[in-house]
Amino acid sequence: MPTAFNEKISQTLGNQKLQLALYAGTGRLVEHRKHAVAEERLPEYQELRSHANALKKHTIEHLDHYLEQLEANVQAHGGQVIWCRDAAEVSDFVLDLAKRRQARLIVKSKSMTTEEIDLNERLEHHGLEAVETDLGEYIIQLRGERPYHIVAPALHLTRYDVADIFQEKLGIPNETVIEKQTMIARSVLREKFLAADIGITGANFLIADSGAVVLVENEGNARLTTTAPKIHIAVAGIEKIIPRAQDLGVFLKLLGRSATGQPLTVYTSFLSGARREGEIDGPDEFYLVLLDNGRTKLLADPDKRESLYCIRCGACLNICPVYRKIGGHSFPWIYSGPIGAIITPQFLGIQHTPALPFASSLCGACAEVCPVKIDIPKVLLDLRAGVKEGPGKAKSDWLERLGFHAFAWLMCHPKAYALMGRFSRLAPLLNIGPLRAWRSQRDLPAMPAKSFRQLWKERG
Amino acid sequence: MSARVSLFVTCVVDQVFPNVGMAMAGVLERLGYAVDFPEAQTCCGQPAFNSGYREDARRVARHFLDVFEGADYIVAASGSCTSMVSHHFAELFPHDPVLRARAEAMAPKTFEFSSFLTEVAQAEDFGARFDQVVTYHDSCHALRDLKIKEGPRRLLRGVAGLELREMDAAEECCGFGGTFSVKFPGVSGGMARTKIESILKTGASTVVSIDSSCLMQLQGAISRAGLPVRTMHLAEVLASR
What is the largest CA-CA distance in chain A? Predict the structure, then answer.
């Protein structure tokens, strides 16, 4: 098992302050969601989930068709579609465009897709300044960190942590009032918006039949990012597409409620290209970057491609008892929680994160809250089978493999099993392997003198 | 009534909690069922399945199918093991139509203990008495795979002298998760302690579940912390006099 993963887990478990922030932060989101989807408020909730699942299934199975339709419609509105295989192709495109337009300052609204490809680091490496404008993202950018959570990037921080980083990076002493902290960020970021050459956003949805990019947010920063600078670039994974504008309602009803418990987020922006003749606002140029970065690999696998249905609401993180203990930064990649546990190994290759699919009690709470009904436990089980029985199975698992072969043999030979059962009464005397791991946290049960089968036989 | 019920006590109950199996047999016999215990039974194979060893799980599943083939009803002492048989056995044999069909035929006659009582036996009164404040832990696979939520609570409320108090985190996982409990012991233990905090807040003396593995996890952490709470399987409560 890779020790880096276990090490980060131990650090998080051992940090009492973080444990409280994590449990309270996710707990609030769980309560808000529960309230928002309650029968009396959203009686059609289960139908919406089934509908959303069917729409995603259909779209993913006909992705080529809808992507071509999207491209044609974006072009018809005067936008350009840039197809990118990986992170380098995205940054090459942005760098080249910035060079041609002599752009230096980029404002960004929150986007997991650009986090996925380390876009900020790549741009900064070439002398551009990329500023996150979502409050949570801005705070973690100042701290030089990665988002802790898909929806709430600074979930792990308290207002005192924010005061510390504002003091260190902005020279503003000891401001711990949240409203005032927000105003500080706002005044810094306003200047950035006004001076920015390019705005980069992600996309919550791409609509094939209208060529529109849909962004949902609460702070208005995405709207400013897409309208203040002369150039808007939206970076989206190819799976973000939905067929028709009329399908959007299903997802909008689910997304806000599942993420934060809001019936709708404060802003929902529908962007279809650059400013046209006679329009008063909007950018001069619009580019839609469509990113693969491992997604098409999943398309080939009918058992697991439902992983691409995700709309990044974060509900599975909040409800997950494992995420609530180990937090976002323990995960090996930018996507954390149950959804991270299934997409990380599939995007990056299972050999990079073989332990990840096993970091789950398979409680199924994630699948229960998933607005698009991804059967996350099932995918985890498939991934586990891939790790242990797939082509790249690790030699280092030989002892465990032998153990399970022995287990299976024993369970198919009842007499041997019964005999072994008698010896198992001695288990409490041992302190090795799994027994030792068990005992690190818990007492072993007192072993009874006789097994059920012995008692049953004696009863006659 | 002389319908025949075959007990699947599960390997955990067989080896670690035999009294749960005895209590279960007693309750079913009082209801007039002819109870048998197919002696060749062992395990459902879930440990291998959940750990990624499907070939080993298939072997154990095949053995289970052989042992229980002729049963009218199979009543299991665990929601999780029931779910393995009724939800996952068929998945194990995607390319073997014969075994798949046998697994599919076994699914509808396999019942978790409490749901057999509420759905098939439709029994209410077991003559049970238990003068304690009790809280009920929803085990994950019973709750989410088998949709068992109200049944066990109704059965508990029918026990004379018993007061049932809900905990906030009734639906939160206890952290057992099979091999997860030893692969990630710190996380698993932390989950158990969170669950126990919620149990303690109810003031209950006893936490009841229909899955002995969850109870083993909770009891282990309760005992480590030296807390005055005990764990009991529903069958033991219903068999109390």
Answer: 93
Between β-strands A129-132 and A105-108, what pairing exists: parallel, antiparallel or unpaired? parallel
* Cβ pair A384:B47 closer than 8 A: no
- Chain B contact for A15, CB < 8 A? no
CATH number of B124-238: 3.40.50.10700
Mutate to test the interface with A, among B6, B13, B50 (most CBs of A within 10 A): B50
Per the structure, the complete domain to which residue A264 belongs is given by 61-293
H helix or E strand, kind and range, residue A313? none
Structure-token pair, residue B241 = 């006099």
B66 touches chain A (CB under 8 A): no
What is the ipTM metric for this complex? Answer: 0.96
Considering all CA atoms of chain B, what is the largest pairwise distance in Å, rounded to the nearest integer?
53
The 10s digit of each residue's pLDDT in B96-135 is 999 999 999 999 999 999 999 999 999 988 999 999 999 9
Question: Using the 8-state DSSP alphabet, how is residue A352 labeled?
Answer: G
Sheet with strand B163-164: strands edge to edge: B163-164, B133-136, B206-209, B230-233
On chain A, the residues whose CB falls within 8 A of the CB of B12 are none
CATH number at residue A128: 3.40.50.10420
Residue A217 forms beta bridges with which residues?
A267
| CATH assignment of the domain containing A344 | 1.10.1060
**CATH 3.30.160 is right for the domain spanning B4-119:** no
Give tens-digit pLDDT for A351-370: 889 999 999 999 999 999 99
Task: Provide the domain count of chain A.
Answer: 3
* Phi, psi (deg, nearest 5) at residue A457: -65, -40
Name A137's Cβ contacts closer than 8 Å, sequence gap at least 6: A108, A110, A147, A153, A154
